[in-house]
Amino acid sequence: MSTSDSTVTITCADGKWNKQVSCEPVDCGLPDKYHVHPANFNFPEGTTYGRRSTFQCREPAQLVGSNNTLTCLEDGLWSFPEALCELRCPAPPHVPNAMLQTKRCNDTGLKVGSLCKYKCKPGYHVTNKPKRRAFKRQCTEDGSWLEGACEPVTCDPPPAIFHGMYQCTDGFRFDSTCWINCPGANHTGPSTNVIRCRKDGNWTGSFKLCPQSKGQCSLPQNLNPSIQVSCKKGHGIGEECELMCKDSNNDVGDPA
């Protein structure tokens, strides 16, 4: 407060003073919200000169320092804080089928911006990124962690010829086993018609047609007259036929 603000001159005229003067304490008002952020302030003594205010950090922010008081100064400003509220993150939650690579991330109270590295377990990859096994999660401004997840590796479906013939323990996901039970086969020993999805996304083997699966398929019926069927190796079970438009300038779409 300058001298001009704290002094005033009064004049006696006609036996009376020309001004009524009283002194009021300086009022600091409410601190700017960024004076200590993020925090809640208490004013048990008010907000005038010499009075003290206390603050509490808003979760998940944590108090760094020990003196959480402010004092209203004679210039109408609150004193500079001797402690601050710092946003921290709790230890990141467990990520299923992933291994935490950053040891310090087992502790709580990590600073905003901290990065934690993970690696998906064998047979799993980063969600929606089949070629990646490693990912990072970051502590964000609101004290939470960015998401990250692993999903099982998948194998390609067995060839279309085996459609409807096999069963699987868990679809085409990693470690799923698929098998074909051939009619009349001897099941006392391990079957050659069992495959398992490996962690590299490939099957351990390939299905074989059952010995009983012999015979011929009839040619596709009710085709448009402009469609030509070509079976280069015949049309026995397991063979493929091509459908072509007789007009070589046009291609045919997948048959319904």
Summarize the structure.
The chain has 256 residues and is mainly beta.
Question: What does this molecule look like?
Answer:
The protein is mainly β and 256 residues long. The chain folds into four domains: 1-86, Complement Module, domain 1 (Ribbon), CATH 2.10.70; 90-152, Complement Module, domain 1; 154-213, Complement Module, domain 1 (Ribbon), CATH 2.10.70.10; 215-256, no CATH class. 2% of the residues lie in helices and 26% in strands. The chain is built from one helix and 18 strands. It has one helix spanning 3-6, and strands spanning 12-13, 16-17, 39-42, 52-57, 61-64, 69-71, 84-89, 98-100, 110-111, 115-120, 124-126, 134-138, 150-152, 166-168, 177-180, 194-196, 227-230, 242-245. The protein has a three-stranded antiparallel β-sheet with strand order 3-4-6, with no helix packed on it. A three-stranded antiparallel β-sheet has the order 5-7-9, with no helix packed on it. The model has no long low-confidence stretch (mean pLDDT 86).
Supply the key terms.
256 residues, Complement Module, domain 1, 3-stranded antiparallel sheet, single chain, 18 strands, 4 domains, mainly beta, 1 helix
CATH architecture descriptor name of the largest domain = Ribbon
Low-confidence stretches: none
How much strand?
Answer: 25-35%
CATH homologous superfamily assignment of the largest domain: Complement Module, domain 1
Question: What's the pLDDT, averaged over the residues?
Answer: 86
- What name is given to the CATH topology of the largest domain? Complement Module, domain 1
Euclidean distance between termini CA atoms: 88 Å
In one word, what is the shape? elongated
